[in-house]
Input
Amino acid sequence: MNITTKIYPSEELTVVANVKGSSLPKESLVFSAHIQEPGAGDNATGVGTQLEMAMITAKLVKASKLEAKRTLTFLWGDEITSTHLYIIEKDKRTSEINWGISLDMVGENTAITGGSFLIEKMPDPSAIWTRGEDKHTEWGGRKLELKDMKPHYLNDFIIHVFENQGAYAHWEVKTNPFEGGSDHTPF
Ligand SMILES: [Zn+2]
Output
């Protein structure tokens, strides 16, 4: 294929969209998708999926079909840099960040790509002592130490939810130990 591109100096922006929580607005779940790296998989898929999620959420909230008790935040920006700034610039946000989920290479047709639905886990013990089904990806990641370990119930909750969804939608759901390298690292 032939592709025409333009390279020019520009200001880098971060877009943040919030759905304010109805009863616990100070608590938030932040979804992030990195916009740099112009790959169709990595990460136009994350940017597009998250846009769809935000639009559907807005539509359901406006129609009073969804009430989110806690604030839902959708953030698009430069990988790691934007999420890191969002975490440290507390005066620019009204909610605490309680959970973060990075959408990086998502929503692909597994029948065509041969890939599975893959969840990278929290820095839990599997990142230090891999055993059983635990396996690092081919792009590696550094070996963690005990002090890096941050287990959290979100890990088990997300895996449980997606295993159920996978059984319903016929996806293969897999996990890999924490390796870092995307927006889940600052979170
Ligand atoms: Zn990525």
Q: What stands out?
A: The longest strand covers residues 24-34. The helical segments are 44-62, 81-88, 110-113, 153-169.
